[in-house]
Design a protein that fits this description.
alpha+beta; 2 domains; two-stranded antiparallel ribbon; 11 helices; 48% helix; 10% strand; elongated
Length: 331
Amino acid sequence: MSDWYYSDYERNRHGPVAARDLADLHHAGQLQPETLVWREGMPQWRAWREMMTQALDEAAGRASPAAHAVPLSAGVNPYAMAEPMAAAAPQHDAQASFPASLGTLTAAGALSSGANPYAVAEPQSPYAPPRAHVGNPGLVSDGHVVYAGFWKRTAAYFIDSLVLAVLGMMLGAVSGGILGAGGASMVVIQAVSQTLGLLLGATYFGVMHASASQASLGKMAIGIKVVNEQGGHISFWRGFGRYFGLLLSCMILLAGVVMAAFTDRKRALHDMICSTLVVDKWAFTNQPEQQREELGTVTTVILVIGGILMAAGLLAMIAAIGMIAAAAAGR
């Protein structure tokens, strides 16, 4: 019995697994009729609905002829699909969507190593893992990954805090002016301003982290980005919710943020909650050698400036407390 491979709903390849495992996945409802499966001896990936009987028979120990199976000659890539016909649509159309290109490739009926359903470089071994995500041609799933540590993240948060402070003051001035002109009380103005400030922060991070750069302005400056656990883009709503996870990390005396200095893959509490990672901007690309473990000049400068400002603020606070205490003692 040869092992099976299957694709999940995000088009990631999984395997090898035994037929018994496929049967368990089928009974658990995790294999949909259109889920692609493959095993050695098959000329191309097939829908689960076509191979289900054969796989379930194999799992039950019943003999079943291999449907559409042909022996593979040495050097042929088992994940290669049928080559598109010469009269097919232009290349960018053929690759526009996975299901569409799959239909075109399957219809041709000829095996070619030039067309791979996962759009990856030719593997050294038929069992080598794919190097790219089909839904994101720029994503490379293997190779070394440099995770952004506590200090890089702190520098990025410092920049983003300044950006949000400026945007928040502008938004607060506009909303406060409108509500004040309408006769709203100070309590209402403060409540609305706080709510708008929260929504502003969540929207800012949601939009920026879901963008092509996968990074806020602070993370862009530092050279890091936010990805999901597979290295791909996160959605706006995950980025939106991650901001509230960040607030939670800060509310527990910054313990959730400090976790990034000690945890596996340098994840903070909000990363664990939202299943995200913060990595070097070149991670999960075809140029992983450009990643940098060191802090870098920008990060160092930002940390120094932030440290000076924090020290100045602390001294100002101590001086203010001293003045208040002196004034109280002189009465």
